[in-house]
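ok trying again, last paste got cut off:
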Amino acid sequence: MTLTKIRSLASTALAAAALAVAAPVPAQDAAPDQLVKTVTLEVVELITKDKEIQAGNRAKLVQLIDAKVLPHFNFSAMTALALGQSWNKANPDQKKRLTEEFRTLLVRTYASALAAYSEQKFDFRPLRAKPSDTDVTVQVRVLQPGSQPVPIDYSMEKTASGWKVYDVMVGGVSLVANYRTEFNNVVRESGIDGLIKNLNAKNRSLEGARLEKK
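nice, full thing came through this time. structure:
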C-alpha cells in the first residue's frame, strides 16, 4: 500500500473519527463504543443540515472541529507517536509547539474529508473489552457504495476527563505513524526546530489555500 493511498484512507479515518466523537455528551459516563455510535448520528445530521458547510464553508467546518472534536483527542500522545524516538529529543517548549502545529496540520488537512464522508453509512462493531479496561480499540467500518468497507480502528484510553483517541488505524496502518519517517528525516537534517518550522510552513500553505477558495 502506497503512502498516498494510506493517507487517502487516513482522511476517511480522521473524518470518521471526527464524526464519531464530535458531539457534547458526558464522555466520562459513556462507554467508548457507545460514545462513538451515539454521537456519530447526531453529528452527521448537524453537518448535513448546515447549508453553509454543505456549500463549502471550510472556516465554519474548522470551527466545528475545534469546538466539538478536539477535546476528545489526545494530541500530545498522537504527536509523540508520530515522532517516535525524536520526541525524546525535544524540550518541553518544543513539545508544546510540535503538538500545536501537528494538531493544526491534521485539522486543516482533513477538514474537507469530514464533510465528504458525512453521508456515508457506518457499521459499528461490538467492543471486545472488559469493563475494567482503560485502553481499548473501537472498530468501525465505513460503508461506501461500490467499494469495500474501510476498516477504522480507534485506539482510545480512559482518562480523568473521559475516553480520548490517541491513534487511528486504517487497515492496520497507524495514521500518526505514517508521519514518522517524514518527521524523523526532517529532524535528522534540521533538528527539532527545523521540524517545527516545516510544520508551520505547511500550515501556512494550507491556510493560504483556504483563503484563496473563499
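cool. DSSP finds seven helices and five strands in the chain. The mean pLDDT is 80.
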